[in-house]
Amino acid sequence: MALLLEHEFKPLPADKQIETLPFLEAVAHLPPFFDCLGTPIVYSPVKADLTGNIKKIRAVYDSNPAKFKTLQNILEVEREMHGSAWPKTGATLALMWLKRGLKFMLVLLQSISDGERDEEHPNLIRVNAMKAYEIALKKYHGWMLQKLFTGSVYALPYKSDLLKALEKGKEVKEEESIEKIHQFLSRVTPILDAIYEMYTKMNAELSYKA
After folding, report:
1. Cα(145)–Cα(45) distance, integer angstroms
2. What is the CA angle 155-160-170, rounded to 5?
3. What is the band of 98 on the pLDDT scale with cuts at 50, 70, 90?
4. CB atoms within 10 A of CB 72
5. Are 205 and 95 in contact (CB under 8 A)?
6. Terminus-to-terminus CA distance in the chain, angstroms?
7. Which residue, among 97, 91, 105, 159, has the nearest Cα to 133 in the 3D structure?
8. pLDDT value, residue 1
9. Which of 147-168 are b and which e, b meaning 16 or more Cβ less than 10 Å from the residue's Cβ?
10. What pLDDT score was predicted for residue 205?
11. Of 129, 185, 201, 209, which has the maximum CB count within 10 A?
12. Secondary structure (3-state) at 70
């Protein structure tokens, strides 16, 4: 799948220490995914948020690549640097929101690849998008944002159009596209799970609403 497999993620090492630079380089190719969902009023801000958070983390990494070699290094160093302001600051906060945007993307794709659908409207992706939103983002959004997202599912593209957009306009059999989604998910899901686990272990997760 052209868009999703454009830049490979490094496999998660046994110690679950994720190197910052390869992670950022791989994830930097993913924000255009949200262009494929249409509805600019909703998904353009999500894309911009993802891009902005990647830039914030990259700026911290570039300030001292040796000190911030892994994502865990970033959280550990910033915890010491920022004291009581941590974790609601710096690259720690940027990565917290980045992982949520990625979680939305991965749950949506996993749901599509698992064949979950509205049997009356099998080419719509509302069911998949709502599942992703409920799991990844809803509890962090206030009432207005929740209403906006819920309404946006009625303007989402057909599944066939989404898959074509992910192939950058090429006509590809659905089974082939789904297989590429499987490949992408098998690489990225363990990495994202490790990031969530790291935030839980370090007590860095926040539940305030945007």
Report:
1. 11
2. 120
3. very high
4. 19
5. no
6. 32
7. 105
8. 62
9. eebeebbeebbebeebbbbbbe
10. 97
11. 129
12. strand
CA separation for the pair 190, 205 (Å, rounded):
18
Burial class, 99, CB count within 10 angstroms (exposed 0-12 / middle 13-18 / buried 19+)? buried
**Residue 90's beta-bridge partner residues?**
none
Report residue 7: phi and psi, to 5°.
-140, 120
Looking at residues 48-70, what average pLDDT do you find? 97
Q: How far is CA 40 from CA 82, 100, 106, in A?
A: 36, 19, 20
Positive or negative CA dihedral for 113, 132, 6, 3? positive
SS3 136: helix
Distance between CA atoms of residues 38 and 195, nearest Å: 28
| pLDDT tens figures, 108-118 | 999 999 999 99
Instruction: Judge contact between 118 and 126, C-beta under 8 A.
Output: yes
pLDDT digits (tens, 9 = 90+) for 125-165: 999 999 999 999 999 999 998 998 888 888 899 999 999 99
Q: How many angstroms separate the Cα of 102 from the Cα of each of 106, 108, 172, 184?
A: 6, 10, 25, 12
Residue 45 neighbours by CB under 8 Å, 6+ apart: none
List the structure tokens of 159. 């599944």
Cα distances from 56 to residues 49, 74, 93, 120, 133, in angstroms, run: 10, 12, 9, 43, 24
